[in-house]
Automatic annotation (TrEMBL):
Membrane topology: Multi-pass membrane protein
Primary location: membrane
Cellular localisation: Cell membrane
Taxonomic lineage of the native organism: Bacteria, Pseudomonadati, Pseudomonadota, Gammaproteobacteria, Lysobacterales
Organism expressing this protein natively: Lysobacter yananisis
Ranges annotated as spanning the membrane: 29-48, 117-141, 153-171, 177-199, 220-238, 258-278, 285-305, 311-328, 348-369, 381-401
Keywords: Cell membrane, Membrane, Transmembrane, Transmembrane helix, Transport
Major facilitator superfamily (MFS) profile domain boundaries: 25-403
InterPro entries in UniProt: MFS (IPR011701), MFS_dom (IPR020846), MFS_trans_sf (IPR036259), MFS_Transporters (IPR050171)
Annotated protein name in UniProt: MFS transporter
Length: 409
């Protein structure tokens, strides 16, 4: 670790809540997390399968549509975060989940590429409005001591939702893809009620700072900028679970059931190991070290897919990938929240979404394109070699990046 960033001289106080209200809000966020992840997981992994094999679109075209959602959502998350700092997290969360519900419902009637792009754009706008405020709410309601444990629990809840979501999606797909879309939309409509009833309405300052204030704080934080930059390569690798992995799983398994089983395995590992493994590693390694090891394991497991000639071999690689993801998810969240300045949590967490916007967007485009190229050139190893190289570059960059002290909460 090279230079150390200086934490802000002063930070705004967190929301003034008694302990019971704080716990109620954090528990409400766990319920919200379950339906947010379940709604996404029951639909999004099936988009590539439905539009490539069901509608007949090219994998590259579907990858483009997925990239549009990724780029718009994470690219505009900065705006959602800045608006959250000015108008309040709960308002932006409520607006965002309603837009996401409308986007997923409209996907049920998207039969060609222009309509698919439009539905993805609407879904992305919703995600952009709620993602940074949601993350900022967690950061505001926790402190440096409780945050790692809460992220571990939250990611365990996400694992349960990720297990059940694809299984429910595959089951509903037997009836109609439209039913999958409407069920996913209903999860986000329910989250509107959850956010409205369970999340606190934080008091906003009488004279909110200008929107550009938070950007100035971000620019001064070198360690935060380095972390966000190297996480772009991590997200390039991580989004392959939603495009390249499902396409290969269906090809090797011979049916869409193979996609559901693959996601069930990945999520099952998360449910079984997320909390205990992360807590065990935290007692022996720093969060940054756990993150680097996790990214490296994800990269090597993805590269090993080049040598997996069967569905069983793919599942073995997915298991290694999932184990790495268990290590990376809560640690990168903890590091980002710890380096964020409490005077502009929404802006900082919105900026952090740019890593997913750029890396995830390029990953979706490259994933679909490389799968097409691999099929056309008879080089099945090509995509997995590229994904592995990108992931290992991310691990190296994260290892060498400057690490500042966590900002006070």
């Amino acid at each position: 670790m090279n230079a150390a960033a200086t934490p802000p001289a002063s930070v705004a106080a967190g929301p003034v809540l008694d302990e019971a209200a704080r716990k109620r809000a954090l528990n409400g966020l766990l319920v919200y997390t379950f339906f947010m992840v379940a709604g996404f997981a029951m639909l999004m992994p099936l988009v590539a399968v439905h539009y490539v094999d069901g509608v007949g679109m090219a994998a590259a075209a579907v990858g483009l549509a997925l990239a549009v959602r990724q780029l718009l959502q994470q690219g505009l998350a900065l705006l959602g975060g800045m608006l959250s700092d000015r108008y309040g997290a709960r308002r932006m969360i409520c607006l965002g989940v309603l837009l996401r519900a409308a986007g997923f419902a409209s996907l049920a009637f998207a039969a060609d590429l222009p309509l698919l792009l439009l539905a993805m754009a609407l879904s992305a706008l919703g995600g952009a409005m709620f993602e940074a405020p949601y993350q900022a709410s967690i950061a505001a309601l926790t402190d440096a001591q409780s945050r790692p444990r809460y992220y571990a629990i939250s990611n365990w809840v996400s694992g349960v939702a990720t297990t059940l979501g694809p299984l429910l999606g595959v089951a509903l797909l037997r009836f109609d893809f439209r039913i999958v879309c409407l069920a996913a939309a209903a999860c986000f409509a329910l989250n509107f009620v959850i956010a409205l009833r369970l999340l606190p309405k934080f008091e906003m300052p009488p004279q909110p700072p200008p929107l550009r204030h938070g950007l100035g704080l971000v620019r001064a934080n070198r360690a935060f900028a380095a972390l966000v930059g190297w996480l772009m390569l991590y997200w390039f690798l991580a989004v392959q679970i939603n495009i390249s992995f499902p396409l290969l799983a269906q090809k090797l398994a011979g049916s869409v059931d193979g996609v559901g089983a693959m996601f069930a395995l990945s999520a099952g590992i998360t449910v079984a190991l997320q909390y205990g493994l992360v807590r065990w590693l935290e007692r022996r390694l720093s969060a940054a070290q756990v993150l680097v090891l996790g990214v490296a394991l994800m990269a090597l497991s993805t590269g090993a897919i080049a040598f997996a000639g069967s569905y069983a071999g793919l599942l073995a690689c997915v298991a290694g990938y999932a184990l790495g993801a268990v290590m990376t998810r809560p640690t990168q969240q903890t590091l980002i929240a710890g380096l964020a300045d409490a005077r502009a949590l929404g802006t900082f967490l919105g900026v952090s979404s740019l890593s997913l916007a750029v890396g995830g967007g390029l990953g979706n485009i490259a994933g679909g394109w490389l799968m097409d190229v691999a099929a056309a050139t008879q080089r099945p190893w090509l995509p997995w070699a590229v994904f592995c190289a990108v992931g290992l570059s991310s691990a190296l960059g994260l290892h060498l990046a400057p690490r500042g002290r966590a900002a006070p909460s």
